[in-house]
Q: What sequence folds into this?
């Protein structure tokens, strides 16, 4: 576990995104912090922007099959991501294209914003090579901000219903539970970066919150 802040912000999930193969992180993160992030998540760190923006956690997501990024991505950013991660990079088309905010995915499935177009849903299916369902979570349409999924578990917005948790368990093939970050923040995706190896959470996250994260994502031996 690593508590961190990027440029004073404890919302680390806005600025970084991890898979089991790589960590995408805003390029102006201090080199020592970038190394610590890489060590905690046990994957190489790839400093990058998406569409010139450092909010890479909001604009990108992925799994072992590929990366999904906002259609605002620039060609040189896309080429560098593909070269440095070894993963295919797919653009999320349409008006709603902040991929990290609107797609919740692991290696088994993806749950996406209810207003994504049929073309965008196909892009998620093909880019991540998983079945896709659309809906909301705890009344939140930006489902990628409302939860964090790994291949071991899903941590969800504290107001998620039992029916929603059961649905996500079936879709993503892992147990689901609720929690918060940064001393009560419900949008766990904005303050948590996780993969199967470890996790990075906002510096304001409390001990009891850490316990829920570790239980939900199965870091406890």
A:
């Amino acid at each position: 576990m690593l508590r961190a802040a990027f440029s004073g912000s404890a919302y680390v999930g806005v600025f970084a995104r991890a898979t089991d193969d790589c960590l995408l992180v805003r390029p102006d993160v201090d080199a020592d912090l970038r190394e610590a992030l890489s060590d905690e998540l046990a994957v190489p760190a790839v400093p990058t922007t998406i569409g010139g923006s450092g909010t890479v956690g909001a604009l990108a997501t992925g799994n072992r099959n590929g990366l999904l990024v906002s259609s605002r991505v620039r060609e040189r950013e896309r080429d560098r991501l593909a070269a440095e991660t070894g993963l295919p990079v797919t653009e999320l088309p349409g008006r709603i294209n902040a991929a990290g905010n609107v797609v919740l995915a692991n290696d088994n499935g993806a749950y996406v914003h209810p207003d994504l177009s049929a073309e965008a849903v196909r892009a998620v299916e093909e880019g991540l090579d998983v079945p896709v369902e659309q809906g909301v979570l705890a009344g939140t349409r930006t489902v990628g901000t409302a939860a964090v999924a790994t291949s071991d578990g899903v941590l969800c917005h504290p107001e998620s219903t039992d029916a929603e948790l059961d649905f996500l368990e079936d879709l993503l093939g892992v147990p689901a539970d609720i929690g918060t970050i940064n001393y009560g923040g419900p949008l766990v995706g904005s303050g948590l970066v996780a993969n199967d190896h470890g996790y990075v959470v906002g510096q304001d996250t409390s001990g009891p919150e850490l316990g829920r994260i570790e239980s939900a994502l199965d870091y406890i031996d």
Remarks:
- The first helix runs from residue 31 to 41.
- The first strand starts at residue 2 and ends at 4.
- The mean pLDDT is 97.
- The helical segments are 31-41, 56-59, 75-85, 99-102, 118-128, 143-146, 162-172, 207-216.
